[in-house]
Amino acid sequence: MVETLKPVQSLKGRDFLSNLDLSPEEYRAVLDTAHAMKRGEFKGQRPLEGQTLAMIFEKPSLRTRTTFEVAMNQLGGHAVNLTNAEIGLGTREPVRDIALNLERWVEGIMARVYLHSTLEELARYSSKPVINGLSDLLHPVQLMADYQTIEESFPDTRGLRVAYIGDGNNMANAHIQCAVLSGAKLTIATPRGYEPNAVILLDALQRGADITLTHDPLEAAQGAQVLYTDVWVSMGQEQEASQRRKIKDFAGFQVTPAMLDLIAPEGIFLHCLPAHYGEEVVEEATLHPKSRVFDQAENRLHAQKALLYHLLG
């Protein structure tokens, strides 16, 4: 498998703000490398020796911070954690100035931010790769881990029935983009008024993606091979929490073992975590035999190692 571990030269030095920053061939190369790294085929090699990744966090994180930091360490590099209290994106200093400083010291920037426009500004002014660790619009690194997890159960994702149930948020938008790359048949079920980004959806449809929107979660779940959900209240949306938590808008969208009984016998359940038990999911669903939630969390490490290897290696 040595061939799959050669960096894709077209990716070196590129930004990764959305999944569609990758071509289908580049997407395939990153996932192949992630699978190989998980198998241990890269153990002992240090391709990012001497390189440093700056990690900017406007939003707190368990999985994103831990996996990027561990990934850099395992690849021989180093990560520097920068909280918003320390750098003050756009307040203490302009985003432009932060980018122009960091590019002098590090080989890459990973940022987990509120506004997608912040990432675009970082990328505009930094000559070094900028990676989207999460924004209000997209969460592309999560989707790479998600599809690594999906491929562990379904190696060929072309035509695979994937159902996303819940809020049409950044995760739904990222799923739409990955439907273009993976060839999966995606159904998104949201309450009325919570649909995903219309521009992202139209772009994916124009690229040939097979995507269906519905307001019926049970219809979406029926026979699906992958069932996916995310929190109803994302960070930054807390002012809407009281409305959403009254279960008025999201009545019927909670993932339970009964809903998992509707998916295909070989189907799997995914949630990008953290889970708000009693809202979008119950504990019994994450601990269900069909759940791959914690495999999915583990794969954040392998998928991000692969991405860093190709962007920086």
UniProtKB/TrEMBL annotation:
InterPro entries: Asp/Orn_carbamoyltranf_P-bd, Asp/Orn_carbamoylTrfase, Asp/Orn_carbamoylTrfase_sf, Asp_carbamoyltransf_Asp/Orn-bd, Orn/put_carbamltrans, OTCase_ArgI. Keywords: Cytoplasm, Transferase. Carbamoyl phosphate binds at residues 112, 139-142, 272-273, 300. One of its GO terms (biological process) is citrulline biosynthetic process. The keyword Transferase applies. Belongs to the aspartate/ornithine carbamoyltransferase superfamily. OTCase family. This is Ornithine carbamoyltransferase. It comes from Calidithermus roseus. The gene is argF.
